[in-house]
Amino acid sequence: MAKLTLSVCKAYKNSGRFRIHKENTSKHWKHYFVEDYFDDGDWKFSSEWVNPIKAQLLKRKIVHRMIWQCDYCDRQFEVLGRKNSKFECPYCDE
């Protein structure tokens, strides 16, 4: 099981649908991630509150959904990965 970080942002502690936060409250860091279960191939979206130091570390590990095209076989495939990374084509051996 791996946690793939999608976003790290500030939010009110009592935020949610049909909830109004109190005035003069401060925002706290929230970590949004996807848990990858390799056995079943299921993805589960979750979130958790984190402290400011851990939030800065998690910001560096944010993954993005990108569509890549292979130079050799000209097929497109979708990957979850960090920016400026190189990916191997799942369809060809090169």
Plain-language structure description:
- The chain contains one helix and five strands.
- It is mostly beta strands and 94 residues long.
- It has one helix spanning 52-59; strands at 2-11, 28-37, 42-49, 64-69, 76-81.
- The strands form two sheets. A three-stranded antiparallel β-sheet has the order 1-2-3, covered by helices on one side. Strands 4-5 form a two-stranded antiparallel ribbon.
- It has two domains: 2-62, no CATH class; 63-94.
Number of helices: 1
Distance between the termini: 29 Å
Mean pLDDT: 83
Which percent range describes the beta-strand content? 35-45%
Instruction: State the secondary-structure class.
Output: mainly beta
Main sheet specs:
3 strands, antiparallel
Low-confidence stretches: none
Question: Considering DSSP H and I runs of 4 or more, what fraction of the residues is helical?
Answer: under 10%
Count of all domains? 2
- The count of β-strands is 5
Order of helices and strands: EEEHEE
Q: What is the general shape?
A: elongated
Radius of gyration: 18 Å
Strand order of the largest sheet: 1-2-3
